[in-house]
Amino acid sequence: MNRRTSRQQRIGIWSASILTGLVGIVNLVSAVAPGLPGRMDWLREIFPFAVRAGGHLFTAMTGFFLLTLAANLLRRKRLAWLMVVLLLIVSMISNLVKGFDYEESLLSAVLLAQLLLTRNLYTAQSDRPSIIQGLRVLVGALLFTLAYGTMGFFWFDQHGGQTFSLTGAMVQTLAIFFTADNAGLVPTYRFGQFFVDSIYIVGITTILYALWMLLRPVIFRTAAADEERRRAQQIVEQYGHSSLARFTLLDDKSYYFSPSGQSVIAYVPKGRGAIALGDPIGPSEDRAEAILGFQQFCDRNDWQPAFYQTLPEDLATYQSLGFQILKIGEEAVVDLRAFTLEGKAGKNLRTAMNKFSKLGYRVQFYTPPISADLLQELRAISDQWLAHVEGAEKKFSLGWFDDDYLRDCEIAVVHNKSDQPVAFANIVPEYQTKEATIDLMRHQAEIERGTMDFLFVSMLQHFKALNYEGFNLGLAALSGVGETGESTRIEKGMHYLYEHLNQFYNFQGLRAYKDKFHPHWESRYIVYPRLAALPNVAVALVRADSDDRLGDYFGTQFLSTVLANNLKKLSRFMPVVVSVLLFGLSIWAIAQQLQKYQLQDIVTSLQNISRTGILLAFGLTFLDYIFLTGYDALATRYVRQPLSYPKTALVSVMSYAISNSVGFALLSGSAVRYRFYSRWGFSAGKIAQIITFCNLSFWIGLFVVGGIAFVVEPLTVPKQLQLPFTSIHLVGYGFLIAIAAYLVWSVIGQRSLRIKSWVLPHLPIQLSLAQVAVAACDWLLAATVLYVLLPPTASQSFFGFFSIYLLAQLTGIISNVPSGIGVFETVLVLLLSPPIATDQLLGALLAYRAIYYFLPLLVGIVLLIGCELRSKKGVKEQTEPS
Fold first, then answer.
1. What's the rounded Cα separation, in Å, for the pair 176 and 154?
2. pLDDT by residue (tens digit) across 620-634?
3. Angle at 109 between CA 108 and CA 115, to 5 degrees
4. Does the bond joining 724 to the residue before it have cis omega, within 30 degrees of 0?
5. Which residues contact 321 (CB under 8 A, 6 or more apart)?
């Protein structure tokens, strides 16, 4: 076989894929087009209508599946080739049967001949366990669709104005797929048409999922065998000469050995990408064969190969084999032979060393094997550091805190004057070079400024004394990328990101920190097959680096930084000014509501409310706000930074009092939380988690009580509301299913769930149940406040009222009107009047707005202003000279 797939072969693969898509389109058009009269006349004498109609249907189905398989032919999937061959045979027959369309059959035959002649090109495997699962899903999909349709036709006798027996229902389901006119079925009701359409949807969805399972790339489910690891270790120890050599032996790697067996490539397969860490390790004369062999190995497994952090020496070899090169950053290497603290250049480092020596700090170097007691102390530091930076362990091109890994490393530990470890770093060898590489660098959350400088300088001095020639400080991502005239457009785009995303990822800060040790910078590259493969390679690299924790990789730090910056800007002017504005907005909103009615009607309706009802409403509002404090109390437990109850209660009451009245939660309630929690030592990331928890709790409560109420007391939604549903019965079931799934996930889940831009935090089941209980009580108490203000009616039970109340609140939320003002009242008037007179209902609603919304708003504003004045007074006293 040639070193690369020949140009002619690539043209053949592309043309076959394009022609497959073309045949698919032609079949779809031909299936709906009428036959030629001359051909149809004599064809009617040969085949009955059912056979000819079936030909139209099979032509359409083959066209659809040929379109879905065309891209998989481009990936040279063997299974896709086999399925296309079978579909083309069906296409040729169905086109002849439906209208003797030999032109379409001839086009299919030409493609079939091409595929048969080039069958040896289609060698890419699919994932074998997925093939088995896909076949099972395919069979299950057919059986499920048949059962679904059979039960539907058997139980519902109004689809076509007739009653179906069990056998007749099964035959009718098959007729949906295999006859053009659904065996004469004409639904007479809207639900009947929906049910027929749903059979198509169910069948197509499940079959497409089965096809995806059949054609997905090979997935590695097991780690490398012990024998492979021993063999790889021998090669790495003999030929390793880069900062990545030690990391190729970590547990997340799989191995490819060159045809000669002299070289090894450590890689991680993710999705359609197989990312090799660094260059092949082995003799230089075996380098090209190792790269070519790995490329062919990836082709067989439907992977796109890439090499991450390659050295400059072998770039010409990669390019000669058809790969493309992209610079990704620079690695900082300190020349220990020239390193010194003397002179002007070493002044700042010299100052740090003197400072910590006077403070009684010291750095001790521990050699393998590291004791279990020390590892336990270092793990506590590592966990504290991870929590402080709000991140998670990275893998692939770095080590991670693993006892087995660190036990065999040399570790430098900073001890304070009390001889307690406060920071550490582990060092890994580069085997065939006199150079050491730093890996993990971690410290306690609260340390003396300059501690890490003290650690770094101590390591540089230590390894210089051991006659090492260099010390590798690691990669500075995007550093030096796109700065020359020869840079590619992609590299110049990456340079733009380097310049403009520094506020989120601190690329430039990392470069500046390493620069203080006066290293020289060496370029590092990523090698990839072609531009079209770069997105798959990038996704695979991110997955490998984050160990498939994409939310941790992108979400927490980025979103926390953005949220923190925005909230900081808001907090500068929020305290008093915004409170006054919110107060004015509430007055305006209530005035807008009152002016719709005559003053005498308003006075009369208010006077009709009993004193007992008003007192109960005050008491229930007070009780509800006690439950509202539970949201923040549980949220601080969730972020593992408990706070005294008076503080959580204070911030909770102020937040909900303001946000409940005027809406705009990010501007009001969240800003209040940010101001106070940041003052009490919470990080921006944890405040964002608290805000997310409280917002989630609101919806959890609605889903729990709404699910129960809407199922028990289903209501018909008034047409005036223009909601996307006419009855809330199914909404109730949907709510309950969602809550059940949420609780099950709390038990079996391990991490937060990310759905596009939404993140659902994972809570332990105990915390989830407490969240459900608090939120449900909140909703019940809020509704009861209004209920006790209503005039008593024999025909209106609390549970029936509660369903109406929840629907009114849900409608207000959907409307996006602050606090649902006007919308909430409109729904209640439509559904409660009658049996309650409109004027009486008006009085109750006005009293409810005043007691449950307006009064807490006044209390919240007073508390907020009081806290701000007290805080400013405290700051002033601290700044005054004693």
1. 15
2. 999 999 989 988 998
3. 90
4. no
5. 3, 4, 288, 291, 292, 295
